[in-house]
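Chain A, query sequence.
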Amino acid sequence: FDVVWGCESGEHMPDKARYVREMTRVLKPGGKLVIATWCQRDNATQAFTAEEESALDFLYSEWSHPYFISINDYATLMRDTGVLDKVETDDWAKNTINSWRHSIWVGVFDPWPVVFAGPRMWWKCLRDGICLERMHRAFKRGLMQYGMMRATKKQPVPATA
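Chain A, predicted structure.
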């Protein structure tokens, strides 16, 4: 492929290295790999407090995420493929933070699908609303980051005679 775009899928992958390697495998030389995913703050630069560990555990279990990694961890995984070049990263949390609360308000503005779905859906939506708000707060205080990563797959080196 000329471009491989992984949008908000890395957080669901139990093997992040395999996820990056597989996207790289299907990318043609000179192609672009772009990943947008939820990341945790880099624990190597600032250790998590007990409260932050608890907040992460809630987010893992409530939405069935295996675990999050940092933006720097993704950059390392991309470089470790040995075939990705020009690895660039950024944190887009400030650009995306409003979407968390917007997701809650969408349900408030058009509640009828939920109302008619019955009590089971009411419970699910309540739990999702709470989780969305807790995710918003995790992003706002810097525990979570919105990782944007990109790289180019290297051209093969021609064999010399």
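The mean pLDDT is 91. Residues 40 and 70 are 5 Å apart (CA to CA).
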